[in-house]
Amino acid sequence: MKRIAILGSTGSIGRNALEVIRHLPAEFEVIGLSTNSNIDILAGQIKKFSPKVVAVRDSLSALRLKRKLNNRIKLLVGDEAAAEIAQEGRVDLVLLAISGSGALVPLIKAVEAGKDVALANKEALVMAGEIIMQKARLAHARILPVDSEQSAIWQCIDGKEKKALKKIYLTASGGPFFGLPPMRLKKISLRQVLRHPRWKMGRKVTVDSATLMNKGLELIESMRLFGLKPKQIEILIHPQAIIHSMAEFIDGSILAQLSVTDMRIPIQYALTYPKRCPSRLTKINFFKLEKLSFYQPDLKRFPCLGLAWEAARGAGSLPCVLNAANEIAVEAFLKGKVGFLAIPQIIEKVLSKHRVILNPQLPDIFYSDAWARQQAEELTYRFARG
Question: 197 pLDDT band (50/70/90 cuts)?
Fold first, then answer.
C-alpha cells in the first residue's frame, strides 16, 4: 500500500486523483491533503479519506477549517505548509497538483527528501528543470509525469535505451481556436477561451491551451524530464486527442500511447507505477473513430508557441522568464484587464528585455521570476490603459 500526499487536492487533478484512489482502496492510504483556500471541498475530502495532516495556504480559510477538524488531524497553515507535507516522513509518493510557479518550492522539498513525485505541474520544471532533475538524481527520487502527453512519452520510452530514441512527437488538440483566422482572434471573449473542445481543466491551463503556450511549456518540460534537445521534439496538432504523444526510434519504429481523453488514466498510471491496475473508465471504440488527423502548428495564429521555442533554444533563465510573464499576462486576461492577443505581446516584450543568465542557480531563478513578473505587471498596466 502506497502512502500518498496530494498537494492541490481541491483542483481538477487532485479531485480526479482521489477518484482513482477511491476505486483502488487496497493500493493507497491518503496521508496528506492541501489546498490554497477551498476548504469546503477539502472538508469533504477529509471526511472521505481521513488524512493524518492537511495544509491550507490562506490563513483565514484555515481558521474556518480548524473549527471542523478533530484533534487527530494536524493542520498546517501558510506559504510553507504544502512544502512541509511534501517532506512528511510517512509519505511514499507526493502527487503535486499545485498550479503555476507555486509548485516550485514543494517540488524541490519533496525531491530533496527523497520522495517520488507524481508531477502534474509544468511550470516548476520550466522554471528550474535542470536544478530539480539534478536534485532528484542525487536523492534517488523519481519524477513520474502526470500530464497526458508526458505520461504518453514516458510509457513509450520506459525501459528503452536512451541512445535508441530519435525524437518525440507532442500532440496538441489545438484548443478552441484551431482553424480560426488570426484576424478573428482580436474579438475573442473569455467565455470562448474557456470552452475547451476536449478537456476539462483549470482556468489558467485552459487559457494556455487556447494560446498553445501549454504545448510550449510541455516542450521545455519534455527537455528536462527526458534529457532531450529542442531538435528532438516535434509538436503536432491532433484534434481528436486520441494519440497523446509518440516516440520515434532510430530504426524507424514509432510507438504511440492512445486512450480516451480522461486525466484519470495518466493519473492512475503515475500513482500505481510500476504496476498497472484495472480501470472502470470508458475504452476507445475503434469502430467509431472516423479519422486520426495531424497538422503543423501555425505560429502566426499561435505566437506563444513560437516564443516558447525561442526560450527553449536560448535556455538558461529564459524559460523561467517566459513562464513568469505568461502567468501574469494570463491572470490579467482572466481578470478582464487585457485582451486575448495581449498575452503574447506582453511575453515577447518581457523576453526581449531580459539579460539571460546561462547557468542559473536557485537564487537566479527566484530573481528572474520576480523581475519578469514586475516587467509584465507594468506592461499589463500599459495595455489596460490602452
Answer: low
Q: Specify the fold of 2-145.
A: Rossmann fold (3.40.50)
Mean pLDDT of the chain: 94
Q: CA-to-CA distance for 164 and 182, rounded, in angstroms? A: 40
Q: How far apart are CA 108 and CA 103, in angstroms?
A: 9
Instruction: Locate the domains of the chain by residue range.
Output: 2-145, 151-261+285-309, 316-386
Q: Rounded to the nearest 10 degrees, what angle do helices 318-334 and 303-314 cross at? A: 160
Mean pLDDT across 323-333 = 97
Distance, CA of 367 to CA of 300 (rounded, Å): 31
Of 318, 162, 168, nearest in space to 231 by CA: 168
CB 266 within 8 A of CB 149: no
Q: pLDDT (tens digit, 9 = 90+) per residue, 272-308?
A: 999 999 998 889 999 999 899 999 999 988 999 999 9
Q: Which helix (H) or strand (E) holds 215?
A: helix 213-226
CATH code reported for the domain at 316-386: 1.10.1740.10
C-alpha cell at 270: 503515475
> How far apart are the C-alpha atoms of 124 and 115, rounded to whole Å?
16
By percentage, how much of the chain surpasses pLDDT 90?
Answer: 85
| 6/29 Cα distance (integer angstroms) | 11
- Predicted confidence (pLDDT) per residue in 209-258, tens digit: 999 999 999 999 999 999 999 999 999 999 999 999 999 999 999 999 99
250 Ramachandran zone, left/alpha/beta (phi>0; psi -120 to 50): alpha
Residue 232, burial from CB neighbour count under 10 angstroms (0-12, 13-18, 19+): middle
At 291 the three-state DSSP class reads: coil
DSSP annotation of 299 reads T
Confirm whether pTM is higher than 0.90. Answer: yes
How confident is the model at residue 386, as a pLDDT? 64
Q: Which helix or strand (DSSP H or E) is residue 72 part of?
A: none
Grid coordinates belonging to 340: 486575448
Mean pLDDT of 54-80: 93
Cite the beta strand spans of the chain per DSSP E.
2-7, 28-35, 53-56, 74-77, 93-96, 116-119, 143-145, 165-172, 233-237, 243-249, 254-258
243 bridge partner residues: 258
